Amino acid sequence: MRRFRCYLAAAMAAAMFMAQPAMAAEGTPVVVQPAYDSQSGGPGVAARPQEGAGEQQGTEPAGGGQASGDSIQEAVEGQASGDSIQEAVEGQASGSSSSTPVVVAGGDPVISGPAAKQAAEEEAARQAAEEAARQAAEEAARQAEEEAARQAAEEAARQAAEAEAARQAAQGRQVFTRQLDSSRPMVALTFDDGPNTSVGNQIMDCLAQYGGKATFFMVGSRVPTHAAEVQRMVAEGHEVANHTMNHKYLQKLDAAQIQAEVNQCNDTIQAVCGARPALLRLPGGNHNATVLANTHMPMIQWNIDTRDWKTRNADQTVEAVLGHVKNGDIVLMHELYSQTGEAALRIIPELVNRGYQLVTVSELAAARGRGLEAGKLYFSFP
Ligand code: ZN
Q1: Selected residue with higher pLDDT from 181 and 157
Q2: Ligand 1 centroid – CA 247 distance (Å)
Q3: Is the predicted pLDDT of residue 175 greater than 80, yes or no?
Q4: Picking from 82-96, 115-129, 260-274, which range would have the lowest pLDDT averaged per residue?
Q5: pLDDT at residue 39 above 70?
Q6: Known active-site residue 238
Q7: What would you measure as the largest C-alpha separation in the chain, in angstroms?
Q8: Alpha carbon distance 217, 204 (integer Å)
């Protein structure tokens, strides 16, 4: 509709433009009726078609004069219907200057003949052009409004996505906010090859009693069947960490297989407990250049090996820790064995008794001001 009206306005403007030079070329004003309006006291120039179409003609609009009296109205109508006038109009339109229109006027100025038609057309064209311009401006404003709204919506969506990403990142990375005393010694107890609910809960019960935290390097394939235990780890501030998906020795795998073992474990742990591991322990601690280049995670080794998986003896495991532990050590144990659980119940109280803070690996590294880099091996943080 708007488009059509624009066309109309343009067509009328074009017609007007074409008509003007024709009139001027003839050089003969069609009707000039000098008049004096006794009522208004102002000059009443009826029509000056040689002037610009947009100009105000006289002090009164042409229509006002015509409507002011019956006699005038009749005169106008008579002119409009008269043959001679019609001929005159046609003559004008065809470029002939042989006849001149006649105007009969009363007290008021009157526009008649081709001049009236011309003026009316010009006025109509002007109004149409104005209307088209107004509508175009409205349309532009509406489009600008829509564009602004669209941009605002996009911005809001972007901000929401950022906030969501930040929230997920916060969930994906455990945040350890507890106060640690850097002047006191620290040790990181680590438990591999779980989760294993019976032993894991035993260890966590004891740690809760003594205010300690540990790190659990878990095999991804075991995680879904011990989901509640893994969720407890996160809830109680322990560190959930990656021990690959299937506990294969990574130095025997190619790059893609190594990445799959690591990534699948991270994905599985995160799916179960919401926290994505930041640390990796290599099965057996085994590695080569391909392993180091393809895990894309910091790799945490150890400096105290209890060999609990081999001895399956609580006394020997206790001795392996308490007989050698020092500040900044990383202790390797395994969650699979009941003897390890028994050993932990004795190790944890004694370490606390000796003044150790039992911390996660990430806490220990942070307390030592050590950044953990992907592709690097870490053994302890003295
Ligand atoms: Zn292992």
Answers
A1: 181
A2: 6
A3: no
A4: 82-96
A5: no
A6: no
A7: 133
A8: 14
Give the Å distance between the CA of 237 and the centre of ligand 1. 22
143 versus 92: which is more confidently predicted?
143
Q: What is the mean pLDDT of residues 53-82?
A: 39
Strands of 89-204, DSSP E: 186-194
Average pLDDT over residues 232-239: 98
Distance of CA 279 from the midpoint of ligand 1 (Å) = 14
Residue 350 Cα to ligand 1 middle (Å):
26
Strands (E), 150-264: 186-194, 215-218, 239-242
Considering the entire predicted model, what is its pTM? 0.57
Measured in Å, residue 321 CA sits from the centre of ligand 1 at 18
Distance CA 281, CA 302 (A): 9
The CA distance from 299 to 311, in Å, is 25
Residue located via tokens 């879904």: 224
Tell me how far the alpha carbon of residue 233 lies from the centroid of ligand 1, in angstroms. Answer: 18
Q: Quick one: DSSP state of residue 58?
A: S
Catalytic pick from 37, 192, 193, 329? Answer: 192
Q: Distance (Å, rounded) from C-alpha 267 to C-alpha 220? A: 8
**Rounded Cα–Cα distance for residues 255 and 331 (Å):** 29
Q: What is the mean pLDDT of residues 121-129?
A: 86
Q: What does the buried/exposed string (b/e) look like for 93-118 if buried means 16 or more CB atoms within 10 Å of the residue's CB?
A: eeeeeeeebebebebbbbbbbbbbbb
Is residue 192 annotated as a catalytic residue, yes or no?
Answer: yes
